[in-house]
Amino acid sequence: MSRDVHNPLLFEIAWEVANKVGGIYTVIKSKAPVTVHEYGDSYTLIGPLNYKTAAAEMEPEPVSNWCMKEILDDMTSQGIKWMYGRWLIEGAPHVLLFDTNSIFERLDAWKADLWNVAGIPSPPNDQETNDAILFGYLVAWFLGDFVAKERSKAVIAHFHEWMSACAIPLMRKRRTDLTTIFTTHATLLGRYLCAGSIDFYNNISKFSVDEETGKRGIYHRYCIERAAAHCCDVFTTVSQITAYEAEHLLKRKP
User: Fold this and answer.
1) pTM here?
2) 185: which residues sit within 8 A by CB, 6+ positions away?
3) How far apart are CA 250 and CA 254, in angstroms?
4) 113 Cβ partners below 8 Å, 6+ apart?
């Protein structure tokens, strides 16, 4: 089956969509007008639903895409809460936000699946990783169903940072018919090592990454980041220095 690659549908996935928690919020927000200009209604951002910020950041509206509506109705019937509308920024892009807490009872099953499918461990008490796994499975579910229904156009899914990227190894394993892009803004281990007193860049090739991430209690997060970097179709970084980090620490040249 051939999809139309000249008029693709683009989904951009990030933890900071309509959710001001870090610097990537500014990156996503500032590039949205250009992307809307290029893609129009073929562009949708996906993020986690934070009720406090969403109320101020977006304006809910009915889901106009029939395919998306059918999937979201089905997800609603299975207890998943979500919000759809327009982000109140320049360009007013479509946004879809998933409430990860609404599906919390599936966490243990999904963590077991993640270990079986991708060999990614997840300790019991890391809330951030738990949220990333719940979000990743919701995104993989939504996009998997989407490409099964929308069969005429090519679909691109662009993920930012490890928190949003758990879906990438899942969709690779499931052979989901779309193209994935993973962008890392700074590697996990790089952040920690730069914050320490180590001469990081001159010794970058000498680090045992597994050991260093283990010592800092971030090995499982690193596994998600590395899996995303290796399972995506296109791997990008935002700067030359991050590219250098990624090549040595994630073992793939962007």
Assistant:
1) 0.95
2) 23, 24, 27, 160, 161, 237, 238, 242
3) 10
4) none
Give the whole-angstrom CA distance, residue 34 versus residue 52.
27
Q: What is the pLDDT of residues 192-230, one digit of tens each?
A: 777 776 677 777 777 788 888 888 888 999 999 999 999
Strands (E), 43-202: 43-48, 58-60, 82-87, 94-98, 153-160, 179-184
**Which amino acid would we find at residue 73?**
D
Q: Which two tokens stand for residue 246?
A: 């990624």
* 8 A C-beta contact, residue 40 and residue 9: no
Q: What is the largest CA-CA distance in the chain?
A: 54
Tokens representing 196 are 């320490």
- What are the tokens at 64? 């106009």
CB 226 within 8 A of CB 235: no
